[in-house]
Design brief:
homodimer, alpha/beta, TIM Barrel, 12 helices, DapA-like (chains A, B), lyase (chains A, B), Putative 2-keto-3-deoxy-galactonate aldolase YagE (chains A, B)
């Protein structure tokens, strides 16, 4: 079984925007600090971070701001995958030089139906261009969004060519059989398999996986971390069921706007509502429905005052 | 019926790369000059240009190089759509300030299942940020690749809000009924509908559309331009059939590597073979098969010496 050397739960940290749609740095720093206190690792610039709605320079600047604010680099796993390999190299090199614990790398996602050879070359080019022993790549398999899957044979080849550098995967396929196959096939080599949501957390840990990297880590971090830490203890199924119930509320809406609406509501900071196109914030009626449902479920953000900084 | 004010045939100009995978500027300029002599408009930075495998600064520099080399700005329709609206603004502003005849704008293509409201906001934000009366946007509808369609109601709303700026569309859906509907519904307002390939050229022109923006404009430009100019003359169906036969050869392979292989073969400049990941060049066997088939079909690049510059 794999022993995680990194946090078992990561959040793709939401990126707050001002009314002018610029990144809101103070709120971003506050959220990262708050998540760290909850025990969550920081997978900044993920899908739920609206990372692909940020320019490369915005991503570089935001990472610099976090490090400058004293966020521990080892707790960070920035998303650095890009359609253009040149962008992926620049972002990955920057994160690695900062000492980030890893990077989470999408495949290039514009062309569809590309083969493993082309995807291998993309990852290989980044690894060779960055040329830094500290680099730890987590492959990002999210076919429902990227439409470009990362196959088991591709992982096998990357592990063979770049052992130690290709460190793990986030499996957001939603297909448990695939997650289980990744763990079974590559886990014994120390390859860290993170489920793409807490829905599969208990099963992932029981099978020998590393944990989860999950959207709702932004809004339900303490409970997910607790479930991750205590997965062998009595009550695990009940804890998993509780996580599922909270997630189900958010999933009724567009996930990112709904999580941002909850953050705005609980923190009292309306900045959190903003999203960038092509996403659209929840309207007033949707916000009220979401708030009513979360209130009925007893939803709270622990230590929410820290988010008002 | 719409009277095209722009070339009837555009090519998404292929981007050549050196052995080090850097943009090969001399070859790029030569191809653009050659295409212009064939009467083709320059939809640089399209899908077949591997535009999304280029960084923003590479795209800015390449456009500067073309203008600097004396390519007429009015003949250019650079692709400027990006996942990040900030990138789309920068690229669109740059093209517009250069006096480009138009820009071809993908929707943001990372998130799937987004609604028209979010896509409207994306285009509106670019138009408002660029704030230049010269801006002419051609919407890029290519659901097989982008997976983010541009609906008829979205076009209607954009035309209502930004008349004169939203100038046309490239329909690469491959669905003739959709192209016909776009022409019928928006053509009378002067909206220019380009088919996404020459397969639909004759039908598009007969229905009142503007022409086509097509991959094979890179390798079969003169014949496509001839078919476009003479669409009302006798022999139109035979000309269309001839275009289809040439296209069919390339379509047996991965289109971009195959067109690059043909360009390398005919020009004698091996630079043309290179592609960037995630694409992979044709292997030796595929190249020989393609060359044999093209030779059997009598395929030639007219005035090919100009491509050896």
């Amino acid at each position: 079984m794999t022993t995680p050397i990194l946090p078992g739960v990561y959040s793709p940290v939401m990126t707050p925007f001002t009314r002018d749609a610029e990144p809101a740095v103070p709120q971003f720093v506050s959220l990262c600090r708050w998540l760290r206190r909850c025990g969550v690792g920081l997978a900044v610039f993920g899908t739920n971070s609206e990372a692909n709605s940020l320019t490369v320079s915005e991503r570089l600047d935001l990472l610099d701001a976090l490090i400058g604010a004293g966020i521990e680099p080892a707790s960070l796993m920035p998303g650095t995958g890009s359609c253009a390999v040149g962008d992926a190299v620049q972002l990955t090199r920057h994160a690695t030089r900062h000492g980030c614990g890893g990077v989470l790398m999408l495949p290039p996602f514009y062309y569809k139906g590309v083969g493993d050879e082309g995807l291998f070359r993309y990852y290989a080019r980044v690894i060779e261009a960055v040329a830094d022993d500290r680099l730890r790549i987590f492959l990002y398999h999210i076919p429902p969004v990227s439409q470009v899957p990362i196959s088991l044979p591709l992982i096998e080849r990357l592990l063979r060519e770049f052992p130690g550098t290709v460190a793990g995967v986030k499996d957001s396929s939603g297909d448990w059989a695939n997650t289980a196959a990744m763990i079974e096939r590559f886990g014994p080599q120390g390859f860290l398999v993170y489920a793409g949501s807490e829905t599969f957390l208990q099963r992932t840990l029981e099978a020998g996986g590393a944990g989860c990297i999950t959207a709702t880590g932004n809004v339900n971090p303490a409970a997910i971390v607790d479930a991750c830490r205590r997965w062998r203890e009595p009550g695990a199924q009940a804890r998993q069921a509780s996580l599922d119930a909270t997630r189900a509320i958010f999933q009724k809406y567009s996930m990112i706007p709904a999580m941002k609406a909850a953050m705005a509501w609980k923190s009292g900071d309306g900045t959190w509502r903003s999203v960038r196109p092509p996403l659209v914030e929840l309207d007033g009626g949707q916000c009220r429905l979401l708030e009513d449902e979360l209130a009925a479920a007893g939803f709270e953000l622990p230590d929410v005052d820290a988010l008002r900084a």
